[in-house]
Amino acid sequence: MTRISTSTLGFPRMGPNRELKFSLEKYWKGEISDIELLNSANEIEKSGWKLQMEASIDRITVGDHYLYDMVLTWSDNLGLCPSRFQHMDAGLKRMFAMARGVDGSEALSMKKWITSNYHYMVPEYDESTVIKPNIELYLNDIKRGIDFLGAQTATPVVLGPVSLVFFTKISHGTDESVLATLLPHYKNLLATIAEMGVAEVQIHEPALVFAEQNISHLLSIAYPAILPKQGPIINLVSFMEDIGEENYQWAISQAEIGIISLDFTRGHTMDLIHKFGFPQDKTLGVGMIDSRNVWTIQPEKVSEVSDFLKAHVVKFRIQPSGSLQYLPWDFSCEKELEGHPASSLLSFAKQKLSEIQMVAQVIAGDMLLLKSHADTWEVFYKSVASGTNQPNKRWTEQDFVRSEPFEKRNEKQGLLGSPLLPTTTIGSFPQTKEIRRLRSQYRSGKITKAVYEAGIDKQIAYAIGIQEALGLDILVHGEAERTDMVEFFAHQMTGLLFTSNGWVQSFGSRCVRPPIIWTDIQRPHPMTVREFTVAQELTEKPVKGMLTGPITILNWSFPRIDISRKEQAFQLALAIRQEVKDLETAGCRVIQVDEPALREGMPLRQHGRESYLQWAVDAFRLATGGAKSETQIHTHMCYCEFKDCMGAIDRMDTDFNSIENSRSDNATLEAFVDIGYNKGFGPGVYDIHSPVIPTVDFMESKIKGFLTCLPVNQLIVNPDCGLKTRTWPETIDSLKNMVEATAKVRAQI
Ligand code: GLN
Ligand code: ZN
């Protein structure tokens, strides 16, 4: 049997036990030095390398152990720095300042990373930006990689120039002019890497998967100008979708590109190859091991791709569909899941490495291996008494529609006793050490349920007291009982599995532990009613019931790969629908159903978009359609541009919509105005991800800016997102200013 070669495209950066998170947080508090932070990161990187070496992966990435985010590091590597940070010396301090803000300088904006729950920092290019590379650290990292793995295996990763430009907010010049400034530096960089003797370089061009017209134009300007004529093989890497006809045709016609890495788990990659062929002299990186889901590959998929490759491709290698950063580190640590019917099919980053080898061997001809893999799936199917494969008839047409249109509902809801420009928050308040301790003591059985609930109630009382004192209008209970907005709900439903250590980076040092959907979903009991009631009994003002929507739960979980996402979303929607009913019965007048992930799940290319938005919005409507007209339904969304799905947002038919706005300019607000959105609207007035306290003036002018495009009775005043990552002093000062800014505006209308 011939051996088929393998590669990876990146490994989780947080470490087996989130070591990087803890080091970063210590570093930000000034408790450890630059060197100590880097040492800690290097150790993690090394343990990832070891695992990949042990799994006999042929090409292992180096230079990609980003401390905060790939795009941020690359803008920093190239010295792409907006004027407000230019007084700082290049280096870690400046890079983190760009990520988190410093002394009144707003951080770069943050956006969701290509259909995922990872976030990237948006680089800025303004009139004072001078590209000045700063690649010493990067070259050092590559050297370390070569020393450890050898020059044949160590594969440097570079974020491609077209993607860097594509992700950058350019306020001075055009895509072409900024690209032109970057190219000589890319050329030098690639030449320097070539001198280091590596066999291959991966140029990651995530922008390839976007449908925007000018990508292939930028590609054809950039690549002839930067690729060395000799030296390492160039591997052009894309992920998360297919790259579309235009980009595909461009890629296969580039003589200097030796390897093209494509995603075989999403989009229509095989159709492209089928239609345009794949050149015999190039190697295809077959990204068929799903880097974004913990379920192991289905045997049918292996056979399908294997047959396809044999028919159409001469040279290929097997690899994950993207970086394994979207997966937790190692499933074998999950002792509590041992013996679970799903456990033999679950595969985290470490297990994916074996999966790569398994698939490579099957494709090389080991049919017994495929048979035993198929048997494992069969055993699972036999052990799940799941109805999920059956068409579902648990809803009717009417269940998707509120009983009256918005205008009627609005009259019945009135202003709930609030003044004009009602102030509110998005849900969570600071998750203090005390709260975390309380939850962990309860989880480990150290305290009784009664003691735990009394502790939570104290937190709720505190949050209500603060909000009353600040003079906010629509209150929240503060979410002290929630670890995160998905895990909390998933825990109370059946059909989902939880890990104890399955952390995945969301942004910076923040990690989430996505649940795993493994069978039918149900909600056996109310999930939020107790805490709502405790809060509402403490105040005359309306307290918002706070729920997470079905699409967000789905997108931030690992769904089954053998059942449609629509089916799974509708099951979740029915569970949320029951909760809405129970909250109403408990006297709740305002219910917020958060859908921050709605937009991120939207396919990048036109095919698939319409049907996604159809079922995704239907799922939301199924969750909220049963609410009485008197109940004000809110939703909240963040870190996305919504311009291209405004119709869908309107179709969600919420009474209020609060949306992240302050870190991504006013484009979002304008998009709402453009479609004549007539329902309640709360564009965020300040960024909650930065520790910087927004001033009264700043927010007053934001609100006034909003009022230039929206009528006053449509506007609600709130921060960009929940406040759980902030401290109480920061929260109080910020909200005090927000309420004051609102009062000032009210006085002027
Ligand atoms: N209600 C949630 C909170 O405040 C919303 C979080 C989010 O949108 N990501 O934490
Ligand atoms: Zn949010």
TrEMBL record:
<dbReference type="Pfam" id="PF08267">
    <property type="entry name" value="Meth_synt_1"/>
</dbReference>
<dbReference type="GO" id="GO:0008270">
    <property type="term" value="F:zinc ion binding"/>
</dbReference>
<dbReference type="Pfam" id="PF01717">
    <property type="entry name" value="Meth_synt_2"/>
</dbReference>
<dbReference type="InterPro" id="IPR006276">
    <property type="entry name" value="Cobalamin-indep_Met_synthase"/>
</dbReference>
<dbReference type="InterPro" id="IPR013215">
    <property type="entry name" value="Cbl-indep_Met_Synth_N"/>
</dbReference>
<protein>
    <submittedName>
        <fullName>5-methyltetrahydropteroyltriglutamate/homocysteine S-methyltransferase</fullName>
    </submittedName>
</protein>
<feature type="domain" description="Cobalamin-independent methionine synthase MetE N-terminal">
    <location>
        <begin position="6"/>
        <end position="306"/>
    </location>
</feature>
<dbReference type="GO" id="GO:0009086">
    <property type="term" value="P:methionine biosynthetic process"/>
</dbReference>
<dbReference type="GO" id="GO:0003871">
    <property type="term" value="F:5-methyltetrahydropteroyltriglutamate-homocysteine S-methyltransferase activity"/>
</dbReference>
<feature type="domain" description="Cobalamin-independent methionine synthase MetE C-terminal/archaeal">
    <location>
        <begin position="421"/>
        <end position="743"/>
    </location>
</feature>
<dbReference type="InterPro" id="IPR002629">
    <property type="entry name" value="Met_Synth_C/arc"/>
</dbReference>
